[in-house]
Amino acid sequence: MTKTLFAVLLLGLAASASERYVHGRGSATDADQSRARSEALQQAKDNLENACSNGHILSPQVTKDNCNMAGPGSVTCTVEITATCSTE
To answer: Is the overall model pTM greater than 0.70, yes or no?
Structure first.
């Protein structure tokens, strides 16, 4: 009986803790490329935190970091961060 109860408790704990992949994306346009990249990165971080608001972010990695000319004198940068969201 004790072993069965222990096994059920372990299964319950395993079911309550889950992990999922989450993404945060940011985009910004500016005349200065480093400022556009910085703003896009901050947006991506904020969006990643929102995607994992009830958990812990594990192993975040920048999976996309592109800057392209958006017009005369301006650059648009896009940054995407992928991570694992662990909820316990």
So the answer is: yes
